[in-house]
Automatic annotation (TrEMBL), chain A:
Chain ranges passing through the membrane: 302-323
Segment forming the signal sequence: none
UniProt organism field: Salipaludibacillus neizhouensis
Keywords: Kinase, Membrane, Serine/threonine-protein kinase, Transferase, Transmembrane, Transmembrane helix
Top-level taxon in the UniProt lineage: Bacteria
Molecular function GO terms recorded: ATP binding; protein serine/threonine kinase activity
Protein name: Serine/threonine protein kinase
Alphabetized InterPro entries for the sequence: Kinase-like_dom_sf (IPR011009), Prot_kinase_dom (IPR000719)
Lineage summary: Bacteria, Bacillati, Bacillota, Bacilli, Bacillales
TrEMBL record, chain B:
Signal peptide: none
Domain of life, per lineage: Bacteria
Name under which the protein is recorded: VWFA domain-containing protein
Annotated CDD domains: vWFA
Domain annotation VWFA: ranges: 1-91
Matches recorded under Gene3D superfamilies: von Willebrand factor, type A domain
Length: 326, 246
């Protein structure tokens, strides 16, 4: 967005640049650009204690606002999946003052990339802890807002889900700050954009839909629940989760805990996922997933006949879920 | 002036003005009068040249608002984002002036340590959530806009969803330019329900000229008249807007 009249500053850093905070005096050496949004950029940098992520924006106000949100939300008891807040400062550059904040660098794979290579139960296994985090967040009066795969990262060893962007976080009762159409109930004609737990839970449902429709889909007139339900039924891949997705879309969950419990019941029923290895029927006509399929095959062969695999796997799954539920 | 009302003109156009006063001059005047002018340029699919881009930015800059140039299909998210950001910007401007009053003439928010800024941010967000918003939507209906109008309508309905999710009140009105006999035609008088614009664009006659400057001037007058009314003055002279819209 062009906003020539307001804080329009060069807010780019370059690899190798040393950013020195004006107020707190910390040094950060920029490694590379991690990501870029509508109004800001995130860089990987080296701080005194190791790698960190630095967010800059051309609007110093949105930096302050996000830093403040991140600080408050990650302090909430039970919210554990966000990056920890480390520092906020200004740097003086040739073009003026640029505000930035520093947070924990979370290394991992994008949510959908990770899931594409995995059996469908992994979708639920990752969404369960997300719902637990959302529950605590909601209890404390915050809404995630811009919930989407791009804002979720899956770390390796141990495999766990983390969220990374606070740009959409909004106090309950206010108008949602940032959203993405596919995940926004307003776009689908399914409600307003007032921050409420059900707003996030609708987005969680669409997050699961996104696993079935990797390139998403557009609203067709008149849109609404009919189109969404048709799309849900059109993807056998999503069948195991259909009841939860539907209930979330219709916003019939009182809170995130109820949605989590439903999901957990689905996952632990045992029957649901046994003979539907997602790897074998990836989303049709996607060349990417076909590639992944080829790569995934040898893995399966290795495991074949080692054990009564499915029983063992579902036992492991069960134990892992117990661990997740804590 | 009614306490805590943010007043905006939202101009949607796809090209350069080619008739009447300089829109940049009018936007400057509008800013003086406490309005902010936001401009969204709509590009044709496949047209990277973005006609009138410079003017679009310049109008917004002069009018203390924001601008963006997008394809018609991206309009919804852009319109609501520009409107929201511009509103925050206006409030931020007011708060910043307060800071100057308190801290001295050269001080700005960035002269405060980061920890202290957060309280101010919270104030700005609180006001942004609760302030009243008067927004006059001014749509270019010159011939080249014809196939973009369905997207414009969609984007405005979407804007209403966003704004109506705020706690504060919203009032909208909708004008098109060029008008049949006047610089602008009123499609919708001040109303809290923007939804009533459905179908408003159907009756529009398309024209070849783009008198952006004169249209902005009329839009400014509509705002000023409303401000006067809210102040409690009787307003007898400004009858130029009184003929029924279409």
């Amino acid at each position: 967005m062009r906003d020539p009249s307001w804080n329009n500053r060069d807010y780019s850093f370059y690899p190798g640049q040393v950013v020195k905070g004006k107020w707190h005096g910390n040094h950060y050496r920029i490694v590379r650009l991690l990501g870029e949004g509508a109004i800001g950029k995130v860089y990987l940098a080296e701080g005194r204690g190791g790698l960190v992520a630095i967010k800059v924006s051309r609007e110093s106000m949105s930096v302050s606002s996000e830093a403040s949100t991140l600080r408050q939300v990650t302090k909430v008891h039970g919210v554990t999946l966000g990056p920890s807040f480390l520092d906020m400062d200004d740097v003086i550059t040739k073009t003026g003052v640029t505000s930035f904040y520093v947070m924990e660098y979370i290394k991992g794979e994008p949510f959908l990339n990770f899931l594409r290579e995995k059996n469908m139960e992994w979708l639920g296994i990752l969404v369960v802890p997300l719902l637990k985090d959302l529950y605590s967040m909601h209890q404390a009066g915050w809404i995630f807002g811009d919930l989407k795969p791009e804002n979720l990262i899956v770390t390796a060893q141990p495999i766990s889900l983390r969220w990374i962007d606070v740009g959409g976080m909004t106090k309950v009762g206010r108008a949602v700050k940032e959203y993405t159409e596919f995940f926004d109930r307003g776009y689908w004609g399914m409600g307003d954009r007032k921050a409420a737990p059900a707003y996030d839970l609708f987005a969680v449902s669409m997050l699961m839909m996104n696993r079935g429709y990797l390139s998403r889909f557009k609203r067709e007139e008149p849109g609404g629940i009919k189109q969404l339900m048709r799309r849900l039924r059109d993807r056998p891949l999503l069948d195991p989760y259909a009841p939860v997705i539907e209930k979330g879309m219709q916003q019939r969950y009182k809170d995130a805990l109820m949605m989590k419990n439903d999901l957990l019941n689905l996952l632990t029923k045992g029957e649901t996922f046994r003979h539907a290895p997602a790897v074998k029927k990836p989303v049709k006509s996607s060349p990417v997933s076909r590639q992944k399929k080829k790569r995934a095959l040898p893995k399966e062969r290795i495991f074949k006949g080692v054990l009564p695999t499915s029983a063992f796997a579902s036992f492991l799954l069960f134990v892992y879920i117990l661990y997740l539920v804590g | 002036m009614k306490q805590g009302t943010v007043r905006q003109i939202l101009l949607l156009t796809d090209g350069c003005s080619n008739s009447g006063e300089d829109p940049i001059a009018i936007a400057t005047l509008a800013k003086e009068e406490g309005l902010s002018v936001n401009v969204i340029g709509i590009m044709d699919e496949g047209d990277e040249s973005a006609r009138g881009l410079g003017e679009i930015e310049a109008i917004a800059q002069a009018g203390g608002g924001m601008s963006d140039v997008v394809y018609a299909k991206q309009l919804s998210q852009t319109v609501q984002m520009v409107t929201r950001k511009a509103m925050t910007q206006t409030i931020f401007g007011v708060v910043n002036r307060e800071i100057k009053n308190i801290l001295g003439s050269n001080k700005e928010m960035e002269d405060l340590p980061p920890e202290k800024r957060e309280d101010l941010i919270e104030v700005v967000e609180e006001i942004g959530e609760n302030a009243s918003l008067d927004i006059l939507v001014l749509v270019d209906t010159s011939a080249s806009m014809k196939n973009k109008l369905p997207r414009v309508q969609e984007a405005l309905l979407d804007l209403a969803i966003s704004l109506n999710s705020r706690t504060g009140e919203n009032d909208y009105c909708l004008y098109s330019f060029p008008g049949k006999r006047n610089p602008v035609d009123r499609l919708l008088a001040w109303t809290p329900q923007l939804d009533s614009l459905k179908g408003a664009f159907k009756k529009i006659t398309m024209s070849g000229v783009t008198p952006t400057g004169p249209a902005l001037k009329e839009a400014m007058k509509v705002h000023l008249k409303r401000m006067k009314k809210e102040e409690g003055y009787e307003d007898d002279e400004g009858s130029f807007m009184e003929q029924p819209g279409l």
